[in-house]
Amino acid sequence: MSLFLFPALLLTSFQEENQMKKSVALLLIAASSGFMAHAQTIGSVVSGSLEMMDTSNSSVYAKVPLPEGSWELFDSATRTSNGGGRGELRDVRLMQFSGEPGSQKLLHAIEITMKVNSLKLNWLDEPCKVDPVLAKNDFGTSMFKQKCLTLRSELFLQNNNKTTLKALEMLAGRKVTHDYNALVLTYSRYGDFGQFLVVREYFFPSAYGLENPKVAIANDSPWHPVRFAEVPQRKAFADAVFAYGEKTAPAFDLAYMRKDPPAVPAFKP
């Protein structure tokens, strides 16, 4: 054993005590400065970007930008990709609220799915294959290297699974009002450089004075792809959301490449 590698073995007990105090102080300083901010827990509030942890929760795999404001972390879990592939995915759900505690309204929600290990994904994970959509941009990609932006009507917190039921319980316990249908702006990219990233941003039209989608009875929904443009206000809102997505897509490209992304502005219709 080399004493060069373990200099602490040469310390006296008095020096060891002082060294320990200094180490604890450094840890406290690091925590207060945000150095240990990646140790996020359910219920923590984040802003600017979210640090996506690897499967062991021991290190930051990548940073994903968040729209301006404070976001509460509701869920974070890992799973193996569909079809028995070896790629490990992390699913994260964040929410943004308006109003005072006890009478809050859910304003915005984001769900992020990212591959957080170096193994390959099974090809069954193809989020760009969705239909029907209000708008879509494939950015000129196809086949095994895909990047797309879509806008469509979708259910919100209506799946009968453990994480959804837990989120509903948390919202009910805090008396947060929310809608069960939304317009979802989805950034998806996968295939190139061995990465996988999907960011779903939920917009609730009722928060902007418009009708909500009726996903369960899509043919009667005011947001059906063949009907939403009949009302100028609906079309203007959908166009604004999609333009916002195209503007922020380059920031998610950097996150996909595991590079530090710039700040993302809040949506303003």
Largest sheet: 8 strands, antiparallel
Rg is 22 Å
Strand order of the largest sheet: 1-4-5-6-10-9-8-7
Shape designation: globular
Name the poorly predicted regions.
1-39
| Total count of helical runs of at least 4 residues | 3
The counted number of beta strands is 10
Q: Please, what is the average pLDDT?
A: 79
Q: What order do the SSEs take from the amino end to the carboxyl end, as H and E?
A: HEEEEEEEEHEEH
Q: How many domains make up the 3D coordinates?
A: 2
- Percent range for β-strand residues: 25-35%
The secondary-structure class comes to alpha+beta
Q: What is the helix fraction of residues, given as a range? A: 10-25%
Query: Span from first to last CA?
Result: 65 Å
Describe this structure in words.
The protein is of the alpha+beta class and 269 residues long. The chain folds into two domains: 10-39; 40-256, no CATH class. It has three helices and ten strands, in the order H-E-E-E-E-E-E-E-E-H-E-E-H. Strand 7 (135-137) and strand 8 form a beta hairpin. The longest helix is centred in the last third of the chain and has 25 residues, at 232-256. It starts with 12 loop residues before the first helix and ends in a 13-residue tail after the last helix. The model is unreliable at 1-39 (pLDDT under 50).
Please give a quick description of this structure.
This protein has 269 residues and is an alpha+beta fold. It has 2 domains: 10-39; 40-256, no CATH class.
What would the keywords be for this entry?
single chain, about 270 residues, alpha+beta, 2 domains, eight-stranded antiparallel beta sheet, two-stranded antiparallel ribbon
